[in-house]
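Notes, Module 5: Reading structure tokens.

Key idea: the token line is not a picture. It is a compressed description, and you learn to read it the same way you learned to read a sequence, by spotting repeated patterns. We will look at two proteins. The first is printed below with its tokens.
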Amino acid sequence: MVADGLVVTLAVVLLLVLIALRTPIFVALAVAGVAGLLGLGGFTAVELVPLALVSQLQEYALVAAPLYILLGEALAVSGLGRDLFRAAHRWFNRVPGGLGASAVGASTVFGAMSGVSISSVAVIGRMAVPEMLERGYKPGFASGAVAASGALAMLIPPSLMFILYSSITGESVADLFAGGLLPGLVLSAMMIVYIVVRAKLAPENAPVDPDRFTWRERIVAIGRISPALLLILLVLGSIYTGIATPTEAAAVGALAAFGVTGAIYHKLGWSNLKRIFVSTAQVTAAVLAIVGAAFVFTQMLVLARVPDAFTGFIVGLDVPPTVIMIGIMIVLVLLGCLVDAASLLLVVTPILVPAIEELGYDPLWFGVLLVVNLEIAVITPPVGLNLYTMKSVVPELDLADIFRGIAPYVAIEGLLLAIMIAFPQLATWLPGLLS
């Protein structure tokens, strides 16, 4: 039989070739995984896949995924995104780059309800970017703020990425949600500070906003988004008070989202209902197809004992653990340029987590660190989904402008990674306080 190492290498090469040929990622993962299993154990190894696959997809934590997707899709048609942006604009309009800061603020709140980054980009971008362009904002400056801040939905709970990470590692979803909250808010603040400073130093990027709002108008705007704030409180509050599990909270949140969309915004006509359920089914099917295909590929890696070999190699290195962690982050950033976020998380987690634990790191902290890294994946070409979502909702934008506009935010995400490596308490303090 061919050496296991060679089989794994050939399977990885096959995966990269299929990705380069623009094969759907779930097909590429499944084909490469099955080919590797055949090389390692013949048809006997492949026969075990269906049972293991069903077992993986029956993971209780995964039930929350379609429910949070449903919640986000219901809110996407409600008009709540427009109210979020207008409310943020009334509070940020006096600062340089106020519309850009407003887009980040609106994305932060919407991300705390949706958990899916492309939904945030689509909902906020559809309103914020055209208004910024109309007021003279540079296309790259306008689109970069929305595409980057849309990724906050991956880090601020409820996050689909944390649900997937939990399904693999067994870490508590509630703890992961808590771990992502402070880094998410810090990242949002860093983005707003960048926008304000950049607009102050280079006013041609963002002309001064002539609008002026009274304190009464600002308070009224907060009142208009109170359903969103109550929905966040309902979902996260029920989790952290112990009233509901994350999955139960997702069901309650989805039901409440329908209530908000129907009773407050009156947007639950038949056409919108069809749009909500069709979009939810499509996104859920795509996510679960990737989960299943990635599991086949990781089964091949496990059969070849790749996680054990990697752990032994990492632990045996005569360098400080921090240096190893920085190296892992750099590799993940490069991989994120080639593979979508969900697939990357599902493939690398079973390999990296055992090594991380051997080095003495907290797997919960690493989960948050990994999701920050995946945020970079969704805003870096050529695979960055947020960039193409931005282009689809504002077609007049040039992709080159979007790519240029996103570059500073990649550096900001990198700075957050460095802060979290230096101060892991940023991710572990709140889970420890709530447990």
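Here is the second protein, with the sequence above and the tokens below, as before.
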Amino acid sequence: MGEQPIYTTRAHVFQIDPNTKKNWVPASKQAVTVSYFYDSSRNSYRIISVDGSKVIINSTITPNMTFTKTSQKFGQWADSRANTVFGLGFASEQQLSKFAEKFQEVKEAAKLARDKSQETVETLSNHSQESGRETPSTNQASSINGTDDEKISSVGPEAALLKSENERLKSAIELSNTNTKKWETELQTLRENNARLVDALQESSANVETWKKQLSVCKEESDTLREKIKDLEAQCNEADQEKQKNLQLTARVQELEAELQDKEQELENLRKQAEIIPQLMAECESITNKLQAAETKNQELEGRVEGLQGDIDDSRQKQGNMKVELKKFMDVLDGKIDELHEFRQGLSKLGLDN
């Protein structure tokens, strides 16, 4: 089957600075995929992460490794084979906790695999020792009890089986010795790395205080940012109000543009009308001349009227005089009539009226 991924997450990858052993150096520019792999043929576990074409984590999990949470979203572990300390920054505390739980599970599985391998080696070693003890006695008994033909016929299959078992046990012992030397070397390396990790842990503890101070500063900055956010929200509300005003102004501008178009149309009409103004001016000038001529005639008529008015006044004066004279005449006539009437009455009295 080969290696198969058993758990995958995303995180920012860091490595400890090899010079200072204090500062973290980013191994990836952004969050990358970090996966646990299980190799069924070797019964081993690895953490692998690739950024593009570059392998930034290739760490085989051993029972001696420890994953340490140094903050709510950051964890680290030391790899003696890679001679470095890996750090992972997660987006949430939940992702960190899940990765740490998986690390512990893989670590326990690696420990069980190691214990099982040691038990197998011990079993094979014990079998080898027991086979070594039993083989001479069997051969001795065979040589005492019969001839060579009898030996072959009586113990031949068992000897062949023991021979193959011995060869297999020898190979297993050699492999065990080789693995033992390798594990001793790894153990020494782990001890050295453990000492380095202790130093790194002490440095991390010292850094925790610094991080706490930084966290306090970050909290203060966060409070300041919250206040700024509130101010920005207030400004956004004001901006919304301004936006409403702008919409109203836009509508008013559209109305004014419509009115402007109407005014432009009126202006165009006035321009067209202005084109006939010279003609109207000429007509006005002609009418003015006519009015002046009419005024001249009017003045002449007024002169004539004044003359006629004088004649009328004279005529009226004469009529008044004639009325006075006529009245006098009528008065005289009335007097004469009265006298004639009185004379007739006198004649009547005298009987001379007939």
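Summary for the second protein:
- The radius of gyration is 68 Å.
- Residues 58 and 296 are 124 Å apart (CA to CA).
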